[in-house]
C-alpha cells in the first residue's frame, strides 16, 4: 500500500500516480470496514483525500465502481463520527454527480433508504448532503419514491427541514438578508428535492401539503435581492415548488390566501416579477421568468371565490371578472392590466410593468414566456375574447385568439377604431360612446391607445393631378404583377375605367366629373 505522509498536500498526485493512490485509499477504507484498521484521524484523512481526487473523474475510476460506492456508503451511513460520515457523503455526492451510472449502483445497494434516515437529522450539513444524494438518484434510476414517502417518511423529513428554515426566517431576531452559506445551500437542495419528488411521484403530492405554509413563509420573509438575477437561486426554487403542489387544499388556501393578509403572497410574486422584467435579458426570460408568470396564473385562478359571510359558502357570480370583493384577483389585474398611463401611447411603449410584459408578447427569443404571458392576460380578462381585446388591443390579442381558435366577437374591431386614419369606424364610435357613458376615455381597439392621445401627421388633401398619377402608378404595378403569371389578378384600375366609374382629367386641368 502507498503510505501517505501526514504532511503531504491533499490531491498532490495526478495521472497514473493519482489512480494508484485512489485505489490504495479505497482498499484501506474497505479493509477498515472489516477490521477497523485505521485510527479516526487516518480514516478522516483518507476520505478527505478521496474527496479532493473525486472532484475530477479522470484517473479516479475505483471510486465509481460498485465496490467503491459500497465502501463509501458504508462509511457514510454506518459511521457514528460526524466528520467521517460527512466526508464520505461528500465523496458520494461528487461520484453520483460526475458518473450517472453510479446512481443506479447506489439505489441497487439500497442506500437511498438510509439517506432518508440521515435527512431527519437536525443539521444543515446533513440536510444538504442527504438531500443532494436523494436528488441525484431521482435521475436515471429505478428509485421507488412512493415507497420512500410511505415507509421512510421522506415527505415528513422534507417538511420538517422546511419548517426549521421557515422558523428561522420568521424570527424577528433574524436578518432575512443575511444567512449562513450552508443554511442557504441546504434550503436550496431541500427545495430541489421537493420539486423532483413531487414531479416524479404525482400520486403522492398531497403528502407534501404541510410543506406549503413553510414555503410561503420563506417566500415572503426572504429579503428581496438587488442582483441582476433576482430569482436565483432561492426565489426560483420556491416558485417552482408552488407550481408542483396542490393549491386547492384547505392548507394551501390558508397559506397562500391567509385571512389576515390575503394578498401577502401575491404582493411578493408581483414584486419579483417587476424586478425580473427589469433584470433578465430576452434569452433568459424563458427559463427564469416563465415559472413566475405561471405561478401568478395559478394564484389568480385558485383565489377563493366570493364567500357569503353568514354561511361561509362560495357564491359564484355571473361575471367573476368584476368581483370587486376578491382582493387577490383585483390586485393582480390592477398591477398587470394596462392603466391610463400605458394608454397615452400605443400599448407596450411605456416604462411600466404591463408595458414591459406586452413588449415581450411577440419576443422570438422567449416563446414559452410570451405564451405564458398571453395566457395570463386572457385569464385576467375573464377568458372573454371581447374583454381580452379591450384590455390589450387587437394587435396583441389577434395572434393568441387565432392560435387557440377563439372566435373574435362580432364588431369587436370593426372599422379599426381610428387606427391611423382620419375617421373612426362604426364600432370605434360605439366604443367611444359606451366609454363616455361609463365615464371612461375611449381607446383605439387595435393599438389600445387612448383616442384623444393619438397624433396624426398633417397631410394635405391630394390634388386631382396627384390622384391621377397615383391611379396610373397602381395601374402599372398591377399590370406588371399580372404579366408575371405567378398569380392571377385583375387590375382594379382598368376595371374601374371599363365600368366608367371615373375618367381622365381634361387637358385644361378642369376637375373631372366623378361618376361614382
What does this structure look like?
- With 516 residues, the chain is an all-alpha fold.
- Among the domains are: 342-453, no CATH class; 464-516, no CATH class.
- Helix content is 56%, strand content 0%.
- It has 24 helices and no strands.
- α11 packs antiparallel against α12 and α16 (290-301) packs parallel to α19 (367-380).
- It is elongated and about 110 Å long.
- The protein starts with 14 loop residues before the first helix and ends in an 18-residue tail after the last helix.
- The model is unreliable at 308-319, 415-430 and 511-516 (pLDDT under 50).
Structural key phrases:
516 residues, disordered C terminus
Average residue pLDDT: 84
β-strand percent reads under 5%
Structural class comes to: mainly alpha
Q: Treating each run of at least 4 consecutive H or I residues as one helix, how many helices?
A: 24
Which percent range fits the helix content?
A: 55-70%
Distance between the termini: 107 Å
Biased composition (Basic and acidic residues): 304-318
GO biological process, one term: G protein-coupled receptor signaling pathway
Pfam families: Ric8
Region (Disordered): 304-325, 413-439
Amino acid at each position: 500500500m502507498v503510505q501517505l505522509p501526514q504532511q503531504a498536500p491533499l490531491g498532490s498526485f495526478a495521472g497514473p500516480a493519482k489512480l494508484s493512490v485512489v485505489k490504495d485509499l479505497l482498499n484501506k477504507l474497505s479493509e477498515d470496514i472489516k477490521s477497523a484498521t485505521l485510527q479516526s484521524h487516518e480514516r478522516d484523512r483518507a476520505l478527505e483525500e478521496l474527496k479532493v481526487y473525486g472532484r475530477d473523474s479522470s484517473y479516479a475510476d475505483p471510486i465509481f465502481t460498485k465496490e467503491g460506492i459500497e465502501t463509501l456508503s458504508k462509511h457514510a451511513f454506518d459511521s457514528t463520527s460526524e466528520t467521517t460520515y460527512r466526508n464520505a457523503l461528500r465523496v458520494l455526492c461528487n461520484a453520483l454527480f460526475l458518473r450517472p451510472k453510479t446512481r443506479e449502483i447506489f439505489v441497487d445497494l439500497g442506500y437511498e433508504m438510509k439517506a432518508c434516515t440521515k435527512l431527519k437529522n437536525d443539521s444543515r450539513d446533513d440536510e444538504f448532503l442527504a438531500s443532494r444524494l436523494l436528488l441525484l438518484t431521482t435521475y436515471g434510476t429505478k428509485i421507488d419514491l412512493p415507497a420512500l414517502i410511505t415507509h421512510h417518511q421522506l415527505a415528513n423529513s422534507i417538511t420538517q427541514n422546511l419548517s426549521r428554515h421557515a422558523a428561522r426566517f420568521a424570527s424577528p431576531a433574524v436578518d432575512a438578508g443575511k444567512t449562513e452559506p450552508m443554511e442557504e445551500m441546504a434550503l436550496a437542495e431541500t427545495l430541489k428535492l421537493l420539486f423532483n419528488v413531487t414531479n416524479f411521484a404525482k400520486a403522492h403530492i398531497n403528502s407534501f401539503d404541510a410543506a406549503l405554509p413553510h414555503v410561503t413563509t420563506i417566500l415572503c420573509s426572504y429579503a428581496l435581492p438587488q442582483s441582476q438575477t433576482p430569482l436565483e437561486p432561492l426565489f426560483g426554487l420556491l416558485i417552482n415548488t408552488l407550481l408542483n403542489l396542490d393549491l386547492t387544499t384547505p392548507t394551501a388556501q390558508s397559506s397562500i390566501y391567509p385571512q389576515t393578509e390575503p394578498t401577502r403572497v401575491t404582493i411578493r410574486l408581483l414584486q419579483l416579477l417587476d424586478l425580473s422584467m427589469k433584470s433578465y435579458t430576452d434569452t433568459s426570460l424563458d427559463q427564469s421568468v416563465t415559472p413566475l408568470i405561471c405561478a401568478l396564473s395559478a394564484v389568480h385562478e385558485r383565489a377563493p371565490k366570493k364567500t357569503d359571510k353568514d354561511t361561509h359558502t362560495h357564491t359564484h357570480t355571473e361575471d367573476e371578472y368584476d368581483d370587486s370583493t376578491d382582493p387577490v384577483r383585483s390586485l393582480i389585474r390592477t398591477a398587470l392590466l394596462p392603466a391610463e398611463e400605458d394608454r397615452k401611447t400605443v400599448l407596450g411603449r411605456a416604462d411600466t410593468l404591463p408595458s414591459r410584459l406586452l413588449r415581450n408578447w411577440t419576443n422570438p427569443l422567449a416563446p414559452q414566456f410570451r405564451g405564458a404571458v398571453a395566457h395570463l392576460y386572457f385569464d385576467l380578462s375573464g377568458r372573454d375574447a371581447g374583454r381580452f381585446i379591450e384590455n390589450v388591443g387587437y394587435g396583441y390579442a389577434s395572434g393568441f385568439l387565432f392560435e387557440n381558435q377563439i372566435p373574435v366577437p362580432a364588431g369587436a374591431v370593426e372599422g379599426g377604431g381610428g387606427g391611423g386614419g382620419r375617421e373612426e369606424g362604426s364600432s370605434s364610435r360605439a366604443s367611444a360612446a359606451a366609454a363616455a357613458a361609463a365615464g371612461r376615455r375611449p381607446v383605439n381597439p387595435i393599438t389600445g391607445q387612448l383616442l384623444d392621445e393619438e397624433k396624426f401627421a398633417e397631410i394635405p388633401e391630394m390634388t386631382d393631378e396627384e390622384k391621377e398619377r397615383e391611379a396610373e402608378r397602381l395601374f402599372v404595378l398591377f399590370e406588371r404583377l399580372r404579366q408575371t403569371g405567378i398569380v392571377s389578378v385583375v387590375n382594379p384600375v382598368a376595371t374601374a375605367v371599363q365600368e366608367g366609374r371615373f375618367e381622365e382629367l381634361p387637358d385644361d386641368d378642369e376637375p373631372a366629373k366623378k361618376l361614382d
